[in-house]
Amino acid sequence: MKNTGTEKRTLWHSPAVHILIIAVVAAVAYLNSLGNGFVGDDNGFVAYNVSIRDLGNLPDFFFDSAKTLAGYDPNWGTYIYRPLRTVSYALDYAVFGHWAPGFHITNLVLHLLAIVTVYLFAQAIIGIPAVSFIAGIIFALHPTHIETVSWISSRADMIAIIFANLSLLAYIRFKKGGRTPYLLLALLLAFVSYLGKETMVSFPGLIVLYDYATREKKGFKEFIGSNILSWVLFTAVTVGYLFFRFQMTGRMSTVQGWWGGTPYTNFLMMLKATAVYLKLLVFPFDLNLHYIIGETRTFLDAKVMASAALIVSTFGLAAYLHGRSRVSFFLVAWFYIGLVPIANIIPNSFSMLAERYLYMPSQGPIIAVAFGSYALFRKMKAGSPALSKVAAIAFAAIMAAYFVTIIGRNGVYKDDFSFYSAAVKDSPESAPSHKCLADQYLSREDIANALAHYDKALAIDPNYAEAMVKKAEIHAGEGSFDKAISMGERAVALKPRDAVLRFTLGTFYKHSGQMQQALDQWQKAVELYPYYAEAYNNLGAYYQTVMDNENALRMYEKSIGVNPFNAEAYYNLAVILEGQGELDKARAGYARFTELAGPEYADVVEEVKNKLR
Fold it and tell me: What is the architecture of the domain spanning 428-529?
């Protein structure tokens, strides 16, 4: 779209100045997030992900599903394939080690880069610097983006949108008379965006819609003929990525089943979730770490009908804009195209709804709002300068409210206790939030509060196996092994293919003296998840107690092979090697143990150091 404004060109209208101002404002808003730690999923993806601690693993992040997913966390298995995110974690670890603020710095830098691409994309399709500035500042400060920026685990969305926008910019250049290399670059960048996050696979839809919105006056047949090759190529790249992803993970989704149990209930819940997304775009202040979309079985439910009405009204808006401004139509429709991969049309997500999912879909509507606001402001300025000043003040007040919201909300991501306390406060009927907060109380040895929240989680969801087995751990710690085993067996019966539940039940059996049952559960755990370092270590300890040193050594070596930072496995391995007279290997194992051992092994470390002297 050509610049239709009559702005006087000054330094203020320089894109570089715009970007600098937006970047400074965004950086200040998120400055207090840099002191936060690892929270929630960060522990599996970063803090305990041993694969990111060696840059030699970088190629494996793309081709080895064991390393590119969630590290060696059995809770995630092969669900997550986002290699560029894993690469970014490895690079962060190489620079910062386990210093969490370093990872938050990277998140902020990625957000700033995403803002730049949003600005450049707005400039490419609107051509008015003021519109690009407004879009950039709204995108930079929109509170629904807090989760993406302040939570290390959510950086995949930023990586993906950066490359997707660069792909669009290359494609726009190609369409405006650029040579074929721009098309090839756009295709490559689109594929890279998928490696950032799989939710970008609706990208070919954006390409088709962009071509339609910017087409010259020509017949429909001619329009299709002039663009079909590009559409086929982008579709081929997307299909190629999906095939490659399937080869890595063996699946396309979490295979969790329909939300609510049926395709129809899934559809009804999807309508309600979409309405919440629309509400968050317009009024992004009632934020939540764990949204609960209530199960619904009839379209006649008041919330479902209200949600459907809201969605239909946005379709009406798109239809209205289609007749007035194809570009505006494209920007509004962008929301629904971006929403397709995360709308759970076919369940493919752990969450029915999450604020981080809006990072990419929000871009189109934000630019549309910026364009509309600019046009309205110019009319006000021409007809009523005083009113235009009021409008400018109102916009500044909204941005100030966004700014303050970001600063306040950043504190939620300070640590796990703050994170899950906020989750329970936001969603008191969320069973997972209560279970995770209970875990935090348990880590603080606050048994009373831990039990209270486990009980609340189980009251909300009586079949919540993970909460059940954690409560069983408390009983085991109190010596009530029969009760712990009973609860553990029930949890395993509910989720027989959960390696963590199997492993934990095995520890209950072990402490109650039922070693064969413990062995069976640990063996099943490693069958279900072949990278379960702790299970291999426990199997090694079992074989060591029955004097089967050959199998014990094999298990310890497997544990270390999976997790080369497993201090306990090095110690156990060294004990056997020392007993077999292989003193040099034993000394190497003991030395490695002392390097890796945490404070809980202080007494053993001192003993080993005396031995090594």
Answer: Alpha Horseshoe (1.25)
